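Repro case for the chain-ordering regression, as requested:
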Amino acid sequence: MQRFSFLQLLRQSFRNHEGWEPQWRAASPKAAYDVVIVGGGGHGLATAYYLASEHGLRNIAVVEKGWIGGGNTGRNTTIVRSNYLFEESEALFEHSMKLWEGLSQALNYNVMYSPRGVLVLAHNTTDAQVIRRHVHANRLAGIDNEWMTPEQAKDFCPILDISRNVRYPIVGASLQRRGGTARHDAVAWGYARAASALGVDIIENCEVTAIRRDAGGGVQGLETTRGEIATRKIGLVTAGHTSVVAAMAGLRLPMESYPLQALVSEPVKPVMPCVVMSNSIHAYMSQSDKGELVIGAGTDAYTSYSQRGALHVAQHTLDALCELFPIVRRLRMLRSWGGIVDVTPDRSPIIGKSPVEGLFLNCGWGTGGFKATPGSGHLFAHTLAKNEAHPIVAPFGLDRFRTGALVDESTAAAVAH
Amino acid sequence: MTQPFRLPSGGRIDRARVLRFSFDGRAFEGHPGDSLASALLANGVHLVGRSFKYHRPRGIVSAGSEEPNALVTIDRGAGRMTPNLRATQIELYDGLVATSQNRWPSLEFDIGAIGQFASRLIPAGFYYKTFLWPPRAWKHLYEPLIRRAAGLGKAPGEPDPDTYAHQFAHCDVLVVGGGPAGLQAALAAAAQAESVILCDEQPEPGGSALHDPARASELSDLLAKLRALSHVRILQRTTAFGMFAQNFVALAQRLSDHIEPSAASGPRERLWQVRAKRIVLATGAIERPLVFPGNDLPGVMLAEAARIYANRFCALPGKRIVIATSADSAYEAAGDLRRAGAEIVAIVDAREGRPIADDFNVIAGAIIDTKGRARIEGCTVQLADGSTLPVDCDVLLMSGGWTPNASLLSQARGALRFEPILQTFVPDVLPPGISCVGACAGDLRPQGDASRPIHPKAFVDFQNDVTSADIALAVREGFRSIEHIKRYTTNGMATDQGKTSNLNAMMIAAAERSVAPQDIGATTFRPPYTPVTFGTFAGASRGELFEPVRRLPSHQWAKAHGGVFEDAGQWKRVSCFARPAETMRDCVNREVLTVRKKVGVFDASSLGKIELAGPDAVDFLNRIYINDFSALAIGRCRYALMLHESGVVLDDGIVARLAEDRFHITTTSGGIGHVLQHMEDFLQTEYTDLRVWLTDVTEQWATFAIQGPLAGNIVQSLLPDAGLSQASLPHMSLRELVWNGSDLRLMRASFTGEAGFEINVPSVQGAALWDTLVDAAERLDGCAYGLEALNVLRAEKGYIIVGQETDGSVTADDLGYGKMVGARKGDFVGKRSLSLPHLAAKGRKQLVGLLPLQLAQTFEEGAQITQAPHPASGTHALGHVTTAFWSATLDRFIALALLEDGRARIGQTLHVPMPAGAIAVQVTSPVFFDPDGSRLRG
Amino acid sequence: MVEISRGRAAVQMQAASGRFVFRGGRDAALACGRGFGLALPAPPLWSSDIGDRAALWLGPDEWLLIANEAGTLRVLRDALAGMAHALVDVSSRDCLFDICGPDAALLLNAAIPLDLSEQGFPIGACTRTVFAKAGATLWRREREIFQLSVARSHGDYAQRLLDEALRSMPEP
Amino acid sequence: MLLIRCPYCETERPELEFRYGGEALLERPKDPALVSDDAWTAYLWTCKNPKGPHAERWRHVHGCGRFFNAARNTVSDLIVSTWRVDDSPPANFDGGGA
Ligand SMILES: Cc1cc2nc3c(=O)[nH]c(=O)nc-3n(C[C@H](O)[C@H](O)[C@H](O)COP(=O)(O)OP(=O)(O)OC[C@H]3O[C@@H](n4cnc5c(N)ncnc54)[C@H](O)[C@@H]3O)c2cc1C
Ligand SMILES: NC(=O)c1ccc[n+]([C@@H]2O[C@H](COP(=O)([O-])OP(=O)(O)OC[C@H]3O[C@@H](n4cnc5c(N)ncnc54)[C@H](O)[C@@H]3O)[C@@H](O)[C@H]2O)c1
Ligand SMILES: Cc1cc2nc3c(=O)[nH]c(=O)nc-3n(C[C@H](O)[C@H](O)[C@H](O)COP(=O)(O)O)c2cc1C
Ligand SMILES: [Zn+2]
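-- result from build under test --
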């Protein structure tokens, strides 16, 4: 792998940048692999990378129906945080957070992980109760998260309006200082480049169309738009499309796919120092290094695979943001788009074995899985390599829906992203 | 001389009126009908901005909304600063104040321009490859530096005082674009008696006819006809920006930015949401720049734009013009510009079979370089034989041909196809109900391909400084998909969304990859077509119109009597009624003690209320609640819990039997919506055999609680003839009475542990009854009490609040309400799930009370509970505090908590770790006060 | 009665009136109509009225009955005795507005997404719908008079929004 | 914003008047006490979630208040037909695949 560094950049600039190599090989499918990861999003690529780098597997492929990172990895608002409520989730997301902190160096790719702080606003007593509960739980778990008065919140994020005469005054907030954002595309590309360098085949424009199973029902291989691939182990990491691919193995999951929208403003000089989320008002916003405000809207009410959302959904988000930050009212929407998120009944992911021998699931990250990318890949790689759920992901097995041991972050927290 | 480049006659400006304006503090003049761009050009100003990354000097490229370069900030007074507006779309008014952006200290001298010299070092995607060491430097050094350079204009610093409006509309035909094609389509539809809405983003309809003197009379004719028809609505300054499913189109109308601030009134913009039976896209075509070294210098512009400036705005972009083209249309521009007085030095045509134009100096070749720093001074032409020719000029026009403006079609999921003859993409598959006409349909003059050398200074995306070399670099680095190339280079991601750059980028990528353009494909078009103000989406929605404020019947009284309001959903509720010089805490303590000792009244009108009627009502209740209602007598009430099918608590309330087949039901204030949905769902789709109907009567009834030892006195005085006694109206019973000529529902019930009543009257009577009740209470030394006191009172009794003691994982048994489950009845919603392993498991979190061992210690809701006083990081929490209060009654701090195996732990000492240290607590029963309920019976 | 108006549209807030929700099957509906002295309309989204008495179809087994005479409820209860039904007095539940004038529909379309043209929503049409962020019931009583009702606690909201919409109406 | 035909109001109305109700044609076990945990939780939680035709429930909540069923294509979002809960789905509707 050609090392990335300032010196390399300098060297190449004297050669008109003619000397740069492809960041990942354009692989074509081989006849057989030890493991095939279906889905070239951040999670799939990270899984392949850790399979190769930590478990020594080399005969691995990632098959992606379009271009890598073109799914939700390339369309999310990039909020990274680990201040979840339940111990199971805390462990999972904090594991990921720790990996984010050294990811650029580990991959030799600047993923621009930017721990600028995630501020969650409370607008009423219930919000304050819920947010405080998070703060206490996180503190016990050793995860940084602190409660702030409105004045402290405004010090941290000066464009907040903390006056009492707005429709939903701010009564307090929590701040996770280590939370922030990362550059979405770079995460996919960085993992792809590092995985490819370790021998992983990254195969784009290769859609899985069927899963072949042997007489015992176990996984035997895949049919794709680029031919058949034999394998005994499949990691299904297709986010919004999980139900579709799982159905190819006769599996029906507790999962629905909804379009989730995001949008950006025209770029402006920095005004937002951190990420702000408000769950009562249903809005969250940050500002990218290029200057555009990155804004998350809601999901449409109905399931869909259309990667676009309705106008009234974005409208609702924008009137909320204008209420929260009156100075943004004159800024303008530059682009809006949708992604398809796979939502489970308890809003927690499903990671682990499936009832089909050889088929492993990593899905159900819903509206909030970007932050989990490194951790998810890391733990899923372990699960695939060892044929057994890593202890951190064990509570997130499919089985919980049968036993009733749900990890219901949504009703407990009303925090979605 | 002012306006040295203004033509003496013609065009669509009003020379009789002079408008003064300023740009970067310099004063200029223009005329009504001018855009800021045309007025600047008339004054000879070409340098208007700096590019994003390299801060290169940039001029005006186009005359329309596709403009990538000429972005300015307009200041219309306090809070009315708008960044990133296109000078080509800003209408001039007297006193207009514009400033350039992304430069410091000035547009002419911009420190940031040193970026140009480092440009070799910072090609596409450079930031992914560096800033890696030392690791902490990204956060503390590199990123702050990058952020400082980010953005174009500045965000406003003050709240926007302007208003915005919304309008829904329906029509048979929506025509987007008011050029000749759109106007014709509108007229044709109107002639068929179809209702028509025609929108055009420009100040006046006419499109390309506005700068075609030959079409002036045809245009005024068409417009006169259309304006005479009452079923045609013409919306100007209105951009169709979003196409949604089933012919739903969003339009943004600009209403007042073109008027001088002192004269402007009414909303600034209006969002039209139009549902059309049919949509006609007549959005014209967009001219494509050529990619050659130095093509970004001020003075290099699109050929048709120059023609527009000359013909429509009467501003001549320059006097010595070179035109580089691969399209016939540029020859018309050449003719018009020459007629306007410019010298056409040469027309450089890149096509082999270029048109014969004897009267021009037509050269077969291409531009390979330009000369000049902040304004073009000349260019170098490479001839077909490879030799070069320097040419002087003050303007260089380019035309790489036209591309149908099909963004909206693509948004609507129509398909485009590459048309080799035109060397561009044209509409192919039209979605149902959508058609394209005119230039948008691909109805274009002959045009061909123009060569594209790969050169570091040949710009493709002018705003984001993407060069043809950047695109080549992306391909070299393995970014093959056009979507990857877009994201790696940021081509097409600027505020113009690549209107002038996407096609060039695609063609370069195709050439680099040696594939056909159609195999590269286009990036996805997304709303909005051009940027749309956030305020326009929000419309009137701000303050109380952002989210309705619902007020209780007692609201006015509360406001006059120290009521401290808090938000609960949309309701404004009262936390407490503070008296002068009273702290919140004193106030709550006083209210609590008054209720315990005397009497208090509380406005509970926000409680959800449902009237349930029908012969199968009991059956229905038995299936929806965990309780058994079979034996509930008429006139009696029962506290009831409702589960989600997954077994967890959904809501609680009181069910009162009014008659054999009629019930009055209450729900939590926030719960009424989903409770009704839940009930209707089962009624309509599961229990379809039941004859039962639900009516939401939340707002029919005002509800007041009267609680305390003296509550009976108040009710007695209010309803002296009702003959109320403990025997005739025992605890948990209801009576329908008449008060003041209105129906009244009186319930003996208590959420405080005191003897008490809840009175319902029609809400028109609510305020009057409240006044009466407070009066009566005050005469007995009672008072009104608020939510805080209520919370203390109920917590002292261990009564739960759904949403506080429950969180979506809590069952009835967890709350200690397992006994409420009707043992003899059959299935009910949620019952089956209760026997799932996890829900039936031992050791679940259960509701208990907590008392700090040291009286002075307090902790807060949400605090965790541990075995050890100093838990190590990562220690498992045994539970958490759901409610924590100072109890005035008990004169100590009390708390409710959900605790693992809680009931078995009663008596144990555990710990609540707070930041200042752990607090030892004793686990107790959740009922702290009057455990046998003797006070309830008065 | 509070009235605000501008140009070709006006908003008048009305006093509460006698309003009842009737729910029931076909037989009960017939009986109810007999008791009410006005047959309940069968076609969806349609109303019938005589004098100041009206019946509005709101759902396949649901009508809103409007009548101001005292004792209406008792008369109806008697007429429905012995039949499965629900009859609920909601006279106090809603806030009523009359929206009048040639541009009444244009005004309402600031917050209501329906086609309120005379073809789309003829005289006599009635429906529940949304009024921006509030639920509402709309009834076209005459060509230029719509009755809009919202839940009582949304009355302030509706009034403010109508007021703002009046001030920012598009040209007709 | 979708335009949805309510089979009770017999008219097309904007999506804002409706609330989505999830997958349609689910059969709640007649006597839940008699089915296994597996069968019960499968009923509770699993979804077809197909890409393509989907039978789903909507409620005309700001209208007649009725629940009804719709066949919608989840790729184009177009609603092909709607029917009352007591009617049967349109002929040749495949109900949402595997
Ligand atoms: C608008 C929006 C905002 C969000 N905001 C946040 C946020 O702020 N913070 C956060 O943490 N999370 C957020 N999320 C969620 C987050 O984006 C996802 O959880 C995460 O990116 C999922 O990553 P992934 O790699 O699993 O999925 P993806 O990146 O979607 O990758 C799945 C891949 O599978 C491929 N695939 C599908 N079917 C097939 C097939 N048959 N054959 C081959 N390949 C196939 C797809 O093409 C896709 O590339 C947001 C999501 C959206 C849509
Ligand atoms: N090279 C060519 O052949 C060429 C190119 C362009 C125009 N023309 C001439 O123009 C005529 C075609 O006229 P036409 O009507 O098709 O195009 P036009 O350019 O005259 O009109 C298009 C109009 O649509 C408006 N518009 C574009 N997008 C919009 C949006 N999203 N919302 C609102 N308004 C929008 C524009 O402001 C413009 O007024 C032909 O007769 C031809 O002579 C020719
Ligand atoms: C964090 C983030 C920032 C983005 N910033 C921009 C931007 O500045 N300009 C732009 O045109 N698009 C921006 N996009 C949107 C992409 O152009 C694109 O819409 C998105 O990746 C979805 O892909 P699609 O629209 O091609 O389906 C951004 C996307 C993300 C996730
Ligand atoms: Zn209906």
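Ordering looks correct now. The helical segments of chain C are 26-36, 72-80, 104-108, 155-167.
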